[in-house]
Write a structure and sequence with these properties.
mainly alpha, 504 residues, two-stranded antiparallel sheet
């Protein structure tokens, strides 16, 4: 094991491999910062460029894109409340309020440091725990995946916002949107109304832009008379709490630990991804906090746990991909395809016959996590903070154009622009009425997984519903889900009893 790590290290330290890491990292940050793109799309689009590369260089390039895009999604989430990637949804909860409080520089620095820590933990887990963790993932069958999905969905619906009922209603709306398209089990079309473009379902990226992008543009227009904050103030560190010694370390360190653990855990489970890990970690951090009401209003640990979790998912999602050929996320599936294109077969033979490539790939994850602090910090602060100088009268239409272009270029379809307009109005109405948008997004993402795993479980058990609570892991996750619901109800009742201050 140690010898293989040293061979991989020597491979990763080659100048051309290091150059590939930095190049991929820059490209990943830029891709993640553009709403509508994602790490999966970025790797898929750039995969053809790696055909002529040496496998070690190609995988280092992909590792850089993977880590960079996971962090890049937090930049528009903090500046404009528009998550650049689905995994950055949880970052908007506290990142945008921090920016509104004049702490943009601090929020961006906290985001990149948290992403780097999560990436480091994930890379170490990939290096040291790949075989045993992959075997543990095999214990999660359809019933367990069903409950993990339900747990993430319920956590978001109940804990995000002050009203659990509104959160659950928003989640139900997302589940309804998730049923549009072809049934994955029977192949029957549902809620397509004869429209061919809806047969593949509502694209998550377009819905994400619609529910966050259009409302953000309208809200910026509403604040057009407010004073525009100068980016020079941000670059000079004029906002408070930017020095490392002033950071709330006692709250941040547990958040980083908790986020990294959740990210690694969810990463090895097939098909869930950073969006689930960040939301689950955020909910756990809020429950563990002594001041849960501060979350959603600019809590530093909210940003820390979300970014640590979605980056800790990166390398961890490659654990089952490299050992069992079972990708843990969409990006892992694309990278797995890249391995096969370069003639590398996942499994024990890969570790035995090509240690310099597979362990070099692991080192690339670790190095790009460290480089993220320099690369991400430079791009985020020096380049993207210039958005703050743009007057709202210009920024609002610019964001609107960006959302339209993002929706259209997703698949070069004008129909997606129609979806954007329709759901954008719905998103703005939800925001004005106090219904949180994140449960809608997560339900749209998890709804098909919940339905598929539930129906497959019932087929396995021949319609015996006891399969969902008699298996030990399923029973534990079901109990945790019930505890979340009870916690949300109790919190809502307590907040309802607090006397409201009288207006003078």
């Amino acid at each position: 094991m140690f010898d293989a790590l040293m061979v991989g290290l020597s491979s990763a330290l080659q100048p051309v491999v290091l150059l590939a890491m930095v190049t991929g990292l820059f490209g990943g940050v830029l891709a993640g910062a553009i709403p509508g793109l994602s790490a999966t799309m970025a790797v898929a689009l750039l995969l053809p460029l790696t055909y002529a590369m040496d496998p070690a260089v190609a995988l280092a390039f992909m590792a850089g894109i993977h880590n960079g895009a996971a962090y890049g999604g937090s930049i528009p989430a903090i500046l404009l409340r528009i998550p650049g990637t689905p995994a950055a949804v949880a970052t908007t909860f506290d990142g945008y309020p921090l920016s509104q409080q004049g702490k943009t520089f601090y929020a961006l620095k906290l985001s990149v440091v948290s992403s780097a820590i999560g990436g480091l933990v994930s890379a170490i887990a990939l290096m040291t725990l790949a075989p045993p963790l992959a075997q543990a993932a095999l214990a999660f069958g359809p019933p367990e995946i069903f409950w993990v999905s339900i747990f993430g969905l319920v956590s978001t619906a109940v804990l995000i916002g002050k009203d659990p009922l509104k959160g659950l209603i928003a989640a139900c709306l997302g589940l309804l949107l998730g049923t549009v398209g072809i049934d994955t089990v029977t192949g029957v079309e549902r809620l397509t109304f004869g429209i061919l473009e809806l047969s593949s379902g509502l694209p998550l990226a377009v819905v994400l832009i619609a529910l966050f992008g259009l409302p953000a543009a309208l809200q910026i227009a509403e604040r057009s008379r407010e004073r525009t904050r100068s980016a020079s103030d941000v670059l000079s560190g004029a906002d408070t709490d930017t020095r490392l010694r002033d950071w709330p370390w006692r709250r941040l360190v547990p958040a980083w630990i908790r986020g990294s653990v959740y990210g690694v855990f969810v990463g090895i489970l097939p098909g869930l991804g950073g969006a689930v890990s960040s939301v689950m970690a955020y909910g756990a951090e809020q429950r563990a906090s002594r001041n849960p009401d501060a979350f959603g209003k600019g809590a530093s640990e909210g940003v820390a746990v979300a970014e640590a979790a979605n980056n800790a998912d990166n390398a961890a999602s490659m654990i089952p991909a490299l050992t069992l050929a079972i990708p843990g996320s969409g990006v892992a599936a694309v990278v797995l395809a890249g391995l096969l294109i370069h003639g590398l077969e996942p499994g024990t033979a890969l570790f035995r016959d090509n240690p310099e490539i597979v362990f070099g790939y692991m080192w690339a994850f670790l190095f790009t996590s460290i480089l993220l602090v320099a690369v991400g910090g430079t791009l985020a602060v020096r380049l993207f903070s210039r958005v703050l100088e743009v007057p709202a009268a210009i920024l609002a239409p610019a964001v609107l154009i960006l959302t339209v272009v993002g929706a259209y270029t997703y698949q070069n379809s004008l129909f997606h622009v129609y979806i954007l307009a329709t759901l954008g109005i719905v998103g703005y109405a939800l925001d004005r009425l106090g219904f949180p948008a994140p449960p809608v997004i997560l339900a749209l993402f998890l709804g098909p997984k919940v339905e598929f795993n539930m129906r497959i479980s019932l087929r396995i058990s021949q319609d015996d519903w006891s399969i969902f609570y008699t298996r030990p892991i399923s029973a534990v996750i079901a109990a945790a889900t019930l505890a979340i619901v009870i916690f949300g109800i109790v919190r809502a009742l307590r907040s309802g009893r607090k006397p409201t201050p009288k207006r003078i």
